[in-house]
Amino acid sequence: TPEPEITGSPxxxxxxxxxxxxxxLSDETAVTTExxxxxxSAVPANQYEVLMDQGMAWDECKAAAVPGLPAPSNDLIxxxxxxxxxxxxxDSAQFQGxxxxxxxxxxxxxxxxxxxxxxxxxxxxxxxLIQLRDLRLLGKQAWFDLNExxxxxxxxxxxxxSRKARGEAGKMALLDEDHSRFExxxxxxxxxxxxxxxxxxxxxxxxxxxxxGIFKAARLRFLGVPVFYAxxxxxxxxDSRKSGLLVPSLGYSSKNGADITTPYYFNLAPNYDATIxxxxxxxxxxxxxxxxxxxxxxxxxxxxxxxxxxxxxxxxHGTRGAIHARTHSNLNFLTEGLSAxxxxxxxxxxxxxxxxxxxxxxxxxxxxxxxxxxxxxxxEWDAIAEVRDYKxxxxxxxxxxxxxxxxxxxxVNWTRFQGAGGLDYSVGVEMTSFHRDDSVTGSRFDLxxxxxxxxxxxxxxxxxxxxxxxxxxxxxxxxxGLDDKPDRATWSASLDGGLFxxxxxxxxxxxxxxxxxxxxxxxxxxxxxxxxLPLFDTGLLDYSFDNLFRDNRFNGxxxxxxxxxxxxxxTSRVLSGNNGRELLNASIGQIYYFEDRxxxxxxxxxxxxxxxxxxxxxxxxxxxxxxxxxxxxxxxHAGTGIQQGLAQANYHGESGERFHASWRLRExxxxxxxxxxxWPVSEKISLIGRWYYSVEERQDLETVAGIEYGDCCxxxxxxxxxxxxxxxxxxxxxxxxxxxxxxxxKLGNDIDNxxxxxxxxx
Length: 762
Known about the structure:
This protein is mainly beta and 762 residues long. It has 4 domains: 13-235, Sandwich (lipopolysaccharide transport protein A fold); 241-417 and 424-434; 451-637, no CATH class; 653-762, no CATH class. The strands form 2 sheets. It has a 26-stranded antiparallel beta barrel.
């Protein structure tokens, strides 16, 4: 017979020995059966190790797929061997030479073994290899019960393919199909010959049903050095949730000193869990944190809180803490499309996130939002009732620049496409009550009807539209001399149209489609005096290509800009001829004004230029592994060059290389550059870096430098970070260290999440 693989086909019929031959074993003397010719060796003795590691892919940094077991031709036990000696009185047989036994969910290999047919028992004094669903065992002095999945073995080597794990044990006992026990065991996910890390224990029990391994008197060595001991240690064999001590987080910062978090996870039920997170800060004290998560058929959410009873580093704050709660509720049982969302955020003081936050996004927060909303969505209707409250954390922001709280906001929108006469209709209604200390407050009602007639085909489109807007206020603490119930009514008419031209081309040896798409948009809105109206939540729209086609140059209801203008724009795209993927998109556009713009945000003079800034945007993925985009706003009347600009390039290499470069400009406000990279320089070493710089202020905003070293079974990352705090007055230095042991977990800071936020595409 040919040399079989673990995933090979069943043996041929002439080498099959099964319970079907039980009746023929009736003689009182031993019966010996040999193959007529010496076959090619099925399992040479030196091939047991090959079978153990088959499909394990030790040279790849990913777990192996668990190979299927060869299925027997029926439910019987199939035995293949060079020769067999039957003992009819005992209903047993001795098999010699390249023995292979196949039974559902298990395959055994041996040179010589005894088979007891009555008890379905196998014994082997020499080497025996047992392959179960996700466990391979190689040892000596073994017995195995094929029915009960029980057995024992000495001098054991084992493999767990799904975890790409291996180890050795002095003794092994199979308790049933899903449970086994090892004594004097070692465990690692490093390839044979690599002892980067080794977990050893007096004993280990594997529960494949629960997918856990429980070590007793566990000792961990890293590069041969003892680093950890635990009387009992539970290791997950999959990614399911289990109660226990999570990997600690270690770090250092100039503000907090040594930073150690030792979380403990409680898997309370399949649909809810909890984590307690004691965090020791050497300069400040012990911060206690906890999180509770839940999931029901109609609700999901989490509650998080932490408290620092006595901050030794800050006398003015004393006890400090934070609360975060988020829930989402599906209320379809009340009416279709109804849901509710709650998001509550609270900190004890303005410096809390700056001092104790863990990420740049958190420490840079200026306004902390809490919100509750009731949402209703149907195909043509959507409505929302919400409240919003802000806590401003940046003391440098003037009181008049704090955002208004919405207490409450009610909005209803109705939209119908292709209604009567082929028209698209929409009506929006909004009522909002605004609150802010020491400011004009009050309520606002806003009504926005709109109708349009979209005419589209494959060579172009034309869409005339007519809209109206009525807004009325009821104000408190209004400026003396101004109406406390001002209102405004206005309307807008627009005509939007474009053409599509395309041609097939072959550039750089590739079939492509090249398009030219001119577009024109005319807008007319009469002037209405709005000087008496407050500014609750309205500002000028940022310039962008899409905003050239908006019917209002302001982004809120408090102002509707007067307009008599024409937008002219041109877009050109390059599409892949194979799959239609967009390889390049270039757009340019400008607004031409026929009248001065008299509506302004404040008491500014009317804008009398004859045209807007020129907006140009470019994005491309035409080069392999590169994604690039850029945009500029140039005012031809100012003569100062680029008013706003953005350029960005991202590289994703085949070997894991990541590179990001960007530049941002807002004239007179900011100019920033950002360079970041994660770059493997060898099979074991990768470099990490980021330089985030303010050209306007001539100072670093954030600097990151780090190194990653390791292989497929272990990896260590060390990162140093220096960043400017939210008020721009002080630098904070942090050191992050993480040791990752494949199959066991990560010790130290969560550098993966940090790099995900820091390096685009990591």
